[in-house]
Write a structure and sequence with these properties.
There is one protein chain. By secondary structure, this protein is of the alpha/beta class. The protein has one domain: 3-Layer(aba) Sandwich (Rossmann fold), CATH 3.40.50. 33% of the residues lie in helices and 23% in strands. Strands 3-2-1-4-8-9-12 form a seven-stranded mixed sheet, sandwiched between helices. The longest helix is centred in the first third of the chain and has 17 residues. The protein starts with a helix and ends with a strand.
Amino acid sequence: MAKRFLLIAVLLAFIGPVSAAKLPQGEWIIVVGGVSMHQWEKYKAQPHDHWWANFIHAARIRTEQLRTELGGNATITWLVYKPGYLERAKQDGADLIGNINSVRDAYGLHLVYFDKGGDVINYLNNGQPRNELKIAGFEYFGHSNKACFMFDYSNVVDSSSKAWMHEDDLKQIDRRAFARGAFIKSWGCHTGEQMSKYWYDATGTRMWGAIGKTQFMDDELPILTSEGGKWVN
């Protein structure tokens, strides 16, 4: 009997943070950061972003889940950091923006490209008439540390970011933009160590974030990789 209850607890712990069931109606926003460049990463012991679609693919997997759970008419918006993919396109010799646009077409997304962190905050506050269409979900796929979403880590400058959303910027978000019970999650590294608290203080919604590092996978959503790592909100 004890083993049975333990198994149930483990299953609930796994599915709880990522389930979209019983959420209010509204817009689901997925923010996708940019990927790094080989010129900065190739000599590192653990280089980042071998694949240009490191974050795009994870966001696509999550979008497919959401379409199944929320239905074809639900408003799902992607906010994508465009400069990072324009630069990576030059390196890879491929039309990465065209590839991203094809995901939009396949899943019926509202796709918005942005250039700086302030653009994301502006969309949260004003991208839709928030008195009519609240934010039911917000998820982030990209580089991060305990205090910041880093939209272009190692894309312009080695191991640094030129576009971000820092925990101190979160107070600019209008908490009235969110629906009651909105689902919020960062799939990046370390967010649960500090930034989640600032998010709650600023918005009144709880953000799931990782203690430790996460790893973006080829065929599943990002996983925890640090010893003792866990999802917290």
